[in-house]
Amino acid sequence: MPKADTEHTPEWPLGSLEPVILDLQTTIAIFGHLIESPREIDKNAWHKIEDDLSAAAGQIRELWQSAFEQRIREDHAHREALESVRAEKAAPGSAEDEKRVAALWELLAAAAAVAMRQCAEAGFRLPGWRQEAEERS
Predict the structure, then answer these.
(1) What is the domain partition of the chain in residue ranges?
(2) Which end of the chain is more exposed for a tag (fewer CB within 10 A), N or C?
(3) Is residue 123's pLDDT more than 50?
(4) Over the range 27-62, which residues count as b (16 or more CB within 10 Å of their CB) and which as e?
């Protein structure tokens, strides 16, 4: 049975839950048998059932906590790996960075061309700016 410690909660296999469930089912069956028994049941038997049920609940709680903490660790590891890949792709000079810069330059050039055309059509030629057609000739 995995137990939580303060520094590291060990990873638990799913099979760790099976014996706890079987013990719980056995205790419940004994409890049902004692309820139906025509004999007088002494307090020790009832206390034993109570102790067994409490122990099973505690083991299930520990397994759940262990699984929950394992899930959190896995989530953090996945997030860190994803952030690492994103940082690597976004690093200055990376292929992804060069693609982004090229796309931004194309966007800037297209916006400037539209602005120049709109100004020229409105009769406000921008000094020092030449249209593509003027540059080609």
Answers:
(1) 1-90, 92-137
(2) C
(3) yes
(4) beeebeeeeeeeeeeeeeeeeebeebeeebeebeeb
Q: What pLDDT sits at residue 11?
A: 63
Output the DSSP codes for 33-70.
Answer: HHHH-SSPPPHHHHHHHHHHHHHHHHHHHHHHHHHHHH
Region of 4 on the Ramachandran plot (φ > 0 left; ψ -120 to 50 alpha; else beta): beta
Stated length of the chain: 137
DSSP 122: T
Tell me the chain's radius of gyration from C-alpha atoms. Answer: 36
Looking at this protein, which amino acid is placed at residue 136?
A: R
User: Per mean pLDDT, which range of 6-15, 20-29, 41-50, 102-111 is the poorest?
Assistant: 6-15
Question: Which pLDDT tens digit goes with each residue over 38-66?
Answer: 999 899 999 998 999 999 999 888 888 88
